[in-house]
Amino acid sequence: MAAVAEATTGWWLLLVLSAAELAVAHHPQPPNIVLLLMDDMGWGDLGVNGEPSRETPNLDRMAAEGMLFPNFYSANPLCSPSRAALLTGRLPIRNGFYTSSAHARNAYTPQEIVGGIPDSEHLLPELLKEAGYTSKIVGKWHLGHRPQFHPLRHGFDEWFGSPNCHFGPYDNRAKPNIPVYRDWEMVGRFYEEFPINLKTGEANLTQLYLQEALDFIERQHTRQRPFFLYWAIDATHAPVYASRPFLGTSQRGRYGDAIREIDDSVGKILSHLRGLGLEKNTLVFFTSDNGAALISAPEQGGSNGPFLCGKQTTFEGGMREPAIAWWPGHIAAGQGINFCPGQNVSGVTTHTQEEHTELPLIFHLGRDPGERFPLSFASAEYQDVLDRTTQVVRQHQEALVPGQPQLNVCNQAVMNWAPPGCEKLGKCLTPPESVPEKCSWPH
Ligand SMILES: [Ca+2]
């Protein structure tokens, strides 16, 4: 897996700053940066990482068009310290997002917290501002809610979202409902002006956040200014939610509904960039702040794939994140897709297709059903099996009459738009214009 990099959030910050600096040096306009940060989404929630429902077609396509990082780590298995590390490029122990009175992994910023991001920390949007960027945070901040910690005091130019998790509803007496801000001022509260129905899981917040992202991108495009969009949405954090069109559409329950809406939104953001002609000058990075909260799964929590435990633990399930980089023309497509997550065998499960016709890998499935130890090429056993196999292959090739290939041409019009009987149910759809095209198999 040579194309797969070991990576951390510190690496991410370095990449972004290097890209911006290089671009400033060699191009009239530095690249835009879109950071799509999920909340409590697990490594195993993406189809490309093996989630069997395959309900993330847009993210899977993003990975196929860009680079997947199977070994990407957050700096902490909990929201606040992970986000502080992401935006500062510094470990929580350095940027102050830890506690010395309990396990650091359990410290975050609830409404009761006094502290927040110190002025002494240099956040990514502050550095980008010096390079001429306009920055917007959409969604959850979580680096402190008191006035001195406001994101517009720490480099961001715009904000639509909340300072804390969408817990609630509260009674506004013992505890206030969490405010939702537009820039400097609150414009409502969760469970009031921004409803979340805990019984049905319905909320339109992801749609609001999506629209904010699309509008911001379009405005900056019109201004011809480089931008940084930090899209920190939280639909996959319990209590999970989705808007009505997505509720009940997943095989995975309510959590899956949230995933599907997010996946759809990511697809719309990438399409928007393409539509504006910005895709070759925009680095998009997708990841999550910490692993899936198994304590809430399956209805309110996700999957960490083959990895142990999840959020609030420092095992792999808590800190290894899904991660994809997308930048057409700059990041080659299809890099780093790992078809054997957690099961890599050196020299066997390689990413690149290799020629093994003359010297095939041979396993003894009786002794080694897991295919971990290919027989040594130099062994007598290998030579004996190879001789017998070669003879069978030769017989097969001599007798072979190839059929007409059926999988070369694709056409949107032939899909199940109007299967037999659809008229009776009123479920017939009008197919698009017939456009035969060569099928692509990105992964
Ligand atoms: Ca989180």
From TrEMBL:
Top-level enzyme category? hydrolase
| Coiled coil spans | none
The places in or outside the cell where this protein is found are:
Lysosome
Keywords of the record, alphabetical order, are: Calcium, Disulfide bond, Glycoprotein, Hydrolase, Lysosome, Metal-binding, Signal
A Gene Ontology molecular function term for this protein is:
arylsulfatase activity
Q: Where is the signal peptide?
A: 1-25
**EC id:** 3.1.6.4
- Give me the Gene Ontology terms describing cellular component: lysosome
Catalysed reactions, semicolon-separated: Hydrolysis of the 6-sulfate groups of the N-acetyl-D-galactosamine 6-sulfate units of chondroitin sulfate and of the D-galactose 6-sulfate units of keratan sulfate
Co-factor(s):
Ca(2+)
Predominant location category: other
PROSITE patterns from the UniProt entry: SULFATASE_1, SULFATASE_2
Q: Sulfatase N-terminal domain: from which residue to which, for each copy?
A: 31-351
Subunit info?
Homodimer.
List the PANTHER family hit by this protein, alphabetically: ARYLSULFATASE FAMILY MEMBER (PTHR42693), N-ACETYLGALACTOSAMINE-6-SULFATASE (PTHR42693:SF47)
Q: Which family does it belong to?
A: Belongs to the sulfatase family.
Q: Under what name is this protein listed?
A: N-acetylgalactosamine-6-sulfatase
Source species: Jaculus jaculus (Lesser Egyptian jerboa)
Q: Which gene encodes it?
A: Galns
